[in-house]
Amino acid sequence: MNATAQIEPKPAAAAPLIRLQNVRKVYRTGGAESVAVSDVTLDINEGDLLSVVGPSGCGKTTVLKILAGLHSADGGSVNIGDGHGSFVEGRDVGMVFQQPLLLKWRTITENVILPAQILGLPLRAARERARDLLQMVGLGKAGDKYPFELSGGMQQRAAIARALIHDPKLVLMDEPFGALDAITREKMNLEMLRIWQESRKTFVFVTHGIQEAVFLGSHCAVLTAGPARMADYFSIDLPHPRHLDIKTTNAFGDYVKRVYRQLGMD
Ligand SMILES: Nc1ncnc2c1ncn2[C@@H]1O[C@H](COP(=O)(O)OP(=O)(O)OP(=O)(O)O)[C@@H](O)[C@H]1O
Question: Alpha-carbon distance 109 to 106, whole Å?
Fold first, then answer.
């Protein structure tokens, strides 16, 4: 070996966008305490789609609220961004809820640009971006319509476009397809994967649906209730693009069984 050869330093692995370590949240009401989340530890890298799955009351929404900066944790640590003020919750988070929550007196475009207006971003650019986003979510012709003219699935697509209008780094989705019928929900799952890949954003997707969690996720966190804790966290190494027939494969079934096992349902 040449003694003068330079040894190139190994590039440092990129830091995760989000690091939760032993996160705990206790709600206190009327002198009573209830542990909503205990001991959640996970990393979310930029560009991941993390599914958070678990039964009602296991603390999924609480984890989202902590990520959104709406609640602080009572224990453990929450690190988002590089710690130098480059991540600002109001600006860098987009949210999608179970209901689309569109303002009925505004057109779809006017609904989509609302977060940009609230943040004081230039409106002309926001309108242009809204046009592109509506195209991306399959609503290219619906910008001038009002919410009542759209189906539930279309309204939820508009809500996804609205969550992306201010170009957030992180998109938090709380059971966004829970109110849709089964067939529309399957279609929205396919759309969701396409939107995730096109937008190149980091998504955290809360669901009760075990199959939905496995189908969508690049990673999956399983929370259990009573006591609320994180039971499992793993990456889902199923190939992309994912089509619905992947659900009939053994590999998909193995991930689903893993979640069932953690929830005591095997
Ligand atoms: N603001 C609050 N004050 C007191 N307790 C709360 C509050 N919010 C949630 N909880 C309790 O904390 C626990 C976790 O609630 P959370 O909403 O995070 O669960 P979840 O998994 O999202 O439930 P679901 O799937 O039904 O929406 C539940 O027992 C709930 O009753």
Answer: 8
Pocket of ligand 1 (CB under 6 A): 27, 29, 34, 36, 54, 56-62, 208
Taking CA atoms, 189 is separated from 98, 185, 213, in Å, by: 14, 6, 10
Distance 95 CA to ligand 1 centre (A): 18
3-state secondary structure (DSSP) of residue 89:
helix
Report whether 117 contacts 123 (CB < 8 A): yes
Closest residue by Cα to residue 134 from 124, 125, 144: 144
Query: What value, to the nearest 5°, has the Cα angle with vertex 19 and ends 171 and 159?
Result: 5
| Both tokens assigned to 235 | 């990456």
Q: What is the pLDDT of residues 195-221, one digit of tens each?
A: 899 888 999 999 999 999 999 999 999
Atom of ligand 1 nearest to the CA of 206: 22
pTM of the model: 0.91
H-helix or E-strand spanning residue 1: none
Model ipTM value: 0.97
Domain boundaries, the chain: 17-87+208-266
| Rounded-to-10 torsion of CA 136, 164, 203, 227 | -130
Which residue's CA lies nearest to atom 4 of ligand 1?
27
CA distance 26 to 75: 9
Compute, in angstroms, the gap from residue 21 CA to the centroid of ligand 1.
20
> Cα of 59 to ligand 1 centre, how many Å?
6
The CATH class of the 17-87+208-266 domain is: alpha beta
